[in-house]
Amino acid sequence: MLTPGPVRLGTRWRETRDLMGVVDSADMEITSFERNRTYTIAHHKAGLEIATTFWFEPLEGGTKVTVEFELERGGVPPGLLAPLGWAIAGKVARVLSHDLADFKRTIEG
């Protein structure tokens, strides 16, 4: 954690992951936050801004979680961004599925 206190708008932390065989760290920040409804995590890497938004919707017996992942190209030429998005889309889906399963276990535990 890079920001003390409870999770809120502006909370920052450093996250380290194995991405396609390479261990990498990124400083993450909550850039939008509406408790129990939605939040967005963003970070900058290699000229890209990567944002992931989570929405939570109560359902009978549980919660529906919707996730949206966005790449903003910054200074990256448009032709380079499309293949990059396709290359990492599957990996991102697997990572988010794993994260959500961990989240579910933590909440229900």
Tell me what the structure shows.
This protein has one domain (12-108): Alpha-D-Glucose-1,6-Bisphosphate, Chain A, domain 4 (2-Layer Sandwich), CATH 3.30.530.20. A hairpin with a 3-residue loop joins strand 2 (22-34) and strand 3 (38-45). A five-stranded antiparallel β-sheet has the order 1-2-3-4-5, with helices on one face. It is built from one helix and five strands; from the N terminus they run E-E-E-E-E-H. The longest helix has 31 residues, at 78-108. The mean pLDDT is 84. The chain has one helix at 78-108, and strands spanning 12-19, 22-34, 38-45, 48-59, 62-72. The chain is α+β, with helices and mostly antiparallel strands and 109 residues long.
CATH superfamily: START domain
- Rounded to the nearest angstrom, the radius of gyration is 15 Å
Main sheet?
5 strands, antiparallel
Q: Would you list the SSEs in sequence order as H and E?
A: EEEEEH
Write out the strand line-up for the largest beta sheet, numbering strands in chain order: 1-2-3-4-5
Please provide the count of β strands.
5
- Straight-line distance between termini: 23 Å
Question: CATH class, please?
Answer: Alpha Beta
Number of helices: 1
| Unreliable runs | none
What CATH architecture do you see? 2-Layer Sandwich
Structure summarized in a few sentences:
28% of the residues lie in helices and 48% in strands. The protein is of the alpha+beta class.
List the helices and strands and how they pair.
Blueprint: E1 12-19, E2 22-34, E3 38-45, E4 48-59, E5 62-72, H1 78-108
Antiparallel strand pairs: 1-2, 2-3, 3-4, 4-5
